[in-house]
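Dear colleagues,

I hope this message finds you well. In preparation for our joint manuscript, I am sending the Alkene reductase (Streptomyces paromomycinus) sequence together with its predicted structure, so that both groups work from identical material. I would be grateful if you could confirm receipt.
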Amino acid sequence: MTSLFDSFPLGGLRLPNRLVMAPMTRARAAANGIPNRTAAAYYAQRATAGLIVSEGVQPSAQGQSNPHTPGLHNDAQVAAWRPVTQAVHANGGRIFAQLMHGGRVGHPDVVGYHPVAPSAVALKSELFTGPKGRRPAPVPRALSTAEVRGEAGVFADAARRAVDAGFDGVELHGANGYLIQQFLSSNANLRTDAYGGSVAGRIRFAVEAAEAAADAIGADRVGIRLSPGGTVWDMAEEDVPGLYGALFDALAPLGLAYVHVLATAEEELLVALRKAWPSAFILNPGGQIGPRPGDQESGEHWLGLGADLISYGRPYIANPDLVERFRAGLPLREADRETWYTGGDTGYLDFPSHQY
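The corresponding structure tokens are as follows:
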């Protein structure tokens, strides 16, 4: 029987176990997108994970969503990431950068750019903009057909910078209501050109972004995260089985390292998607942010259903030694939610490993 503690080959890597640290926004970067000075220690503390996926990193200034998030679109940001990746590798770990383009989940008050999206449909929510507090989401500017191809290329540019910064690969954020899922959706994408309307049109941008990143750094260094049927940031998707079945079919020939799926759909559909996917399948049992994060039992359940790797988000905040705690059956700490995005080292670096 497959165990969470078995090794696994992923692309050109050999993971020592099947636990993945999921990407989590921590909102501690400088205003210029430079990762905070203690990010190296934060990620190095968690290097016993089979794989770390970084917090969401904006692949362009236009693509920034939240304030105080890091970037990978200029040389200074690349240089600032190198000590982080070096610290993870020095501790025996492996780390991918998650490339997260916010699309319509953005505000001019954050970086001075008006957000772009598949269509001029505003998010029905307020966004945190920093010193000015929460502001209504603006109506985004709809990308022209010619511009869409350029936004796919943004992921390729950031992927090259990620490898230059020492990351082992990249994960495209196609989940949780950001740009890639906005193209997949039926309420944020009202286009009538080649990037909208039919299922083939709505999956086109996701496939082109993945193709561009794979061409830039090699498919075995590229993964993509998806949330089938997920409703974060006002998302709605019609015919979820048909949409994601077609998307998986279109992505499969690219030879990507993995697909990273949140448990946002019925188990039957997720198992079918697992069976349809030819390479590594990462499952996050926590699904959308809710009252109950994923646990060891749910991870083992999904391994039994065919998942190759299990990702954990919130448990990794307060338990940098999560692998060891699961292995030894030790209790898990809980992090204070009030410290998730508040900056500084409190709730970030102040969780030592278990002392026997």
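For the figure legend, we might mention the following. The mean pLDDT is 95. The radius of gyration is 19 Å.

With kind regards,
E.M.
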